[in-house]
Backbone:
């Protein structure tokens, strides 16, 4: 077949969208207004644009400045792959002022993974953590005002212990993926003050200056 008869490749951003995709984006905008990222007037204007959109590029124009709720369709200018963390019969640990990505994947095979988010830089209202854990342990230490949803984790001969619950105005951590013959613990630290001394559990001692 002559290549001259073949149609030119189409950029994914130029693909036509369906009513279902338009409704999905409206749902994302509703989520954004719930997080306080849009005013009611902005939500109304962007909803009108979304419902009239013809291509994926049109839809992305109403999402591009909304961190954590952007469109993940191929061709989106804001599509960023998740950051992956791997522990194979070993251990990984993140603590201090590290930058938390919007999406994480934790691969853990008979290892241990510890993520301390209490002093981390979190710029997203929602952080998604996909688990791929077999025979390992994962511990998440979340900020005091954060929340966690772990109902969508598939558990096989393992245990997910979520002591955090609903958000109190901070970021929400959403756990997905699979846990097999391992454990996942999600908790917030507790603090005890004795004069100028502050003791955090898990253990860390600091003094007021």
Residues:
């Amino acid at each position: 077949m002559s290549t001259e008869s073949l149609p030119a490749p189409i950029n994914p951003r130029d693909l036509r969208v369906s009513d279902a995709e338009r409704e999905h984006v409206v749902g994302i905008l509703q989520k954004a207004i719930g997080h306080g990222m849009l005013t009611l007037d902005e939500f109304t204007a962007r909803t009108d644009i979304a419902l009239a959109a013809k291509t994926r590029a049109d839809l992305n124009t109403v999402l591009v400045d909304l961190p954590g709720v952007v469109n993940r369709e191929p061709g989106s200018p804001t599509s960023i792959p998740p950051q992956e963390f791997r522990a194979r019969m070993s251990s990984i640990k993140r603590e201090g002022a590290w930058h938390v990505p919007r999406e994480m994947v934790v691969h853990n095979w008979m290892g241990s993974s510890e993520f301390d988010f209490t002093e981390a830089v979190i710029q997203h209202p929602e952080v998604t953590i996909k688990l791929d854990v077999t025979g390992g342990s994962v511990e998440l230490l979340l900020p005091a005002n954060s929340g966690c949803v772990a109902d969508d984790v598939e558990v096989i001969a393992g245990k997910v212990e979520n002591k955090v619950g609903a958000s109190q105005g901070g970021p929400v951590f959403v756990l997905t993926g699979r846990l097999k013959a391992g454990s996942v613990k999600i908790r917030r630290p507790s603090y005890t003050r004795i004069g100028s001394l502050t003791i955090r559990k898990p253990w860390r001692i600091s003094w007021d200056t």
